[in-house]
Amino acid sequence: MPRNSKTIYIIDDDEMFADCIELAIKKDIENLEIKKFKNALDAMNCLDKLPSLIFLDILLPGADGFTFLNELTSYPDTAKIPVVLVTSLSLPETDLSIYGIKGILNKETMKPSEVTDYVHRLVK
Fold it and tell me: Which residues of 48-80 are buried (b: 16+ CB within 10 A; e: fewer)?
């Protein structure tokens, strides 16, 4: 599957929070396509063109974020997509290394600049 270097996925069932992430990115960075999904299954079904970065909530309806990560890492081409978790859960990054997680943003304390820092660093 081709990698679309201009696309970012935001997978979060909280529409307002997903909108905040999108706004932070669009305010700072131009020429990016942002696709938002309310659940993991819809995002998996859209991986015909691989995004450059995924912001992923863990607590989702139906298949949760860990189910999505298991599916994502089971294929060589999708396993290379950088993922940043966006969650209120307390998760130690060391336990998530098997998923190739590039970072964790805490929903309760994160700042827009933290979102754009990940985009600048990970979107090539």
Answer: eebbbbbbbbbebeebbbbebbebbbeeeebee
Amino acid at 26: K
**Alpha helix stretches (DSSP H) within the chain:** 15-28, 40-44, 65-72, 76-79, 112-122
Q: What pLDDT does residue 93 have?
A: 59
All structural domains of the chain, each given as residue ranges with its CATH number in brackets, are 3-122 (3.40.50.2300)
Position 116 pLDDT exceeds 50: yes
Rounded Cα–Cα distance for residues 29 and 7 (Å): 12
